[in-house]
């Protein structure tokens, strides 16, 4: 028997994998429709297809259609994640099709078998969303009045951008996506080393980066700050935050779901974007890292994110009165906990703030962190030559441990080396401190060089001195005068964390973290202080 051509072998393998995924176990998602509807749509039909994208570029995809014989069904478009392909959503696509949806999944251009080059959610990717919708309306039973998009990570970003430019898309569910790409890649001028590096490697292994992407990566990792405006302009074009007025004008219903510890697309840029949306909207935040909260749903297992996504789409595309529109739209699960909290908006997550003043360190090298009068006139120098051991963790691994094992990144606060780490610690609290929102640090800094970086961490410290990471953020400064003091205002990533009674809060600041590219010259030092005219403090948001 002659050998099959390479393309035929790939399609055969894809079909075999699809069959294995769909027959290995029943879909375990909680049903959101009546038994009668489920029975009527119990045999969705799967087919693989080529879809013409923008400019005729071939996009590899698959289509699940209900087997109920109806003429019109709501359409759900699912662009796959970075470095994955259209097989990613098979379990979820089948579940949606069984509930009456036409589901079209596709591999974005530049990856796997799709044509073109990787555009990183650039204009061709945005136009591809509309071309996929066009194709679905022409070749399936999709209803032109009921169109939605959804996706994880890269698929989430493309879905939001596609909805901004195509008013036919009525609703979006963006899971572990970004709204502001520049803020995600280098917040406070600090490049995110591990996350960007992982994306770059995965892109080269599974796709075809174009000249523009290769140039941008060279600039990004090369730390050539003269190129920063060009990188930011490139990122802004690929950010839904740039086009929020379009989404608002279209009246698009937007659901956003991310993890507190998302090390690729951190939560602050998403909460800021959420606050700017004026149409129907929902924000969900849970423990975990990038795409880990919704990952089990891709295997067809019960999953809160996908259950809520289904309810959101059912309401806005099928008119199902499931109550999701009457629920408080901000739905969060605090770190290390199992229950949820609900709020009418993001600002209501924080009930009050407590300002804690930083003081000079004692003979053990630890400064006080306390309410009351400002403490001024002290200085605390550190060297930026070495990592102190206070870190944000390892991409994916650390936040996965927190999500599933309830073990966040930890350090022994008493053993942190004071020559390379400044430490301030509160007294033990008599009651639980329920941290909700973004911790802010206002810190006087005198650098020995004109540029450099610092990383700030807030820890929950038990009676043995073990610190569990609550929140952190990097900060990079450029163009400063050596020896001249300035004030660093650092906004840590949003969190929801309960510090138990009897524990303390500790603020740690050092100059090195493996998650980031820091910019301290050799032998550089940072001296922290609190002059009388501008005291140093940390503001803790509380419920």
TrEMBL record:
The reply to whether Manganese figures as a keyword in the UniProt entry is no
- Matches recorded under InterPro entries: AB_hydrolase_fold, FrsA_esterase, Galactose-bd-like_sf, Xaa-Pro-like_dom, Xaa-Pro_dipept_C
Q: Where is the Xaa-Pro dipeptidyl-peptidase C-terminal domain?
A: 310-538
Q: Care to name a GO molecular-function term for this sequence?
A: hydrolase activity
Pfam families, alphabetized:
Peptidase_S15 (PF02129), PepX_C (PF08530)
Q: Which stretch is the leader sequence?
A: 1-38
The UniProt record lists the keyword Signal = yes
- What keywords does the record list, in alphabetical order? Hydrolase, Signal
Output the SUPFAM superfamilies linked to this UniProt entry.
alpha/beta-Hydrolases, Galactose-binding domain-like
**Which PANTHER family is this protein grouped with?**
DIENELACTONE HYDROLASE DOMAIN-CONTAINING PROTEIN-RELATED, POLYKETIDE TRANSFERASE AF380
Which family is this protein grouped under? Belongs to the AB hydrolase superfamily.
Q: Which protein, by its recorded name, is this? A: CocE/NonD family hydrolase
